[in-house]
Specification:
Blueprint lengths: L12 H13 L9 E4 L6 E6 L2 E8 L8 H26 L3 E3 L2 H8 L6 H8 L6 E7 L12 E8 L8 E7 L9
């Protein structure tokens, strides 16, 4: 069963970067609540919009159902390679990324504690992979600018051992920083 509008697509760096560019130039909602856009009929996730935030799938693997041991590892490595290739391309474009862990947001979610909207949205969607973050980046180009700047984060996620891996991007107008314990 597919989860996103990217199911069945081959991962392509150029398309992923183009999708990120499109999100960077798209207006961000000024207020909530969250709106989830889905593909008509299939109801596959295409985009989540909330106050100052866009979250979208860039790629989805096949299901891991029936994969064990070395097959599961090999399938998992595909997602990690896709993420690494995208991170390398975005590093080339915007400079070195920062890593932002998801351990603290996951623990806050479990404890039902407050956290910033981005992390709450990621946890609510089971997008629990650590983030590679750039920002501020200017939506009008690859160089950071004083106004209209945005932060970009990418991660690869799997909500359970049988589910597909999903490479996601978040674009926000707020700095993305590691949460303190």
């Amino acid at each position: 069963m597919s989860m996103t509008a990217r199911a069945g697509e081959t991962f392509e760096i150029a398309r992923a970067v183009s999708d990120i560019d499109s999100l960077l130039t798209r207006p961000l909602p000024g207020a909530g609540p969250a709106v989830r856009e889905e593909v008509p009929v299939t109801e596959e996730w295409a985009l989540t919009m909330d106050r100052g935030l866009l979250l979208a799938p860039l790629w989805e693997s096949d299901s891991f159902t029936g994969l064990y041991d070395s097959e599961w590892e090999a399938a998992s490595e595909v997602g990690e390679r896709n993420l690494a290739a995208l991170v390398a391309e975005l590093d080339r474009r915007w400079g070195p990324h920062r890593s932002v862990g998801m351990r603290v947001p996951i623990n806050r979610k479990i404890a039902d504690e407050a956290m910033p909207l981005l992390f709450r949205t990621l946890c609510d969607g089971d997008f629990l992979g650590d983030l590679s973050v750039w920002g501020p980046v200017d939506p009008a180009g690859p160089v950071a600018g004083p106004t209209g700047s945005r932060w970009v984060a990418v991660s690869v996620n799997q909500c359970d051992g049988d589910a597909p891996m999903v490479l996601t991007v978040a674009v926000t107008d707020r700095p993305i920083t590691e949460l303190d314990d």
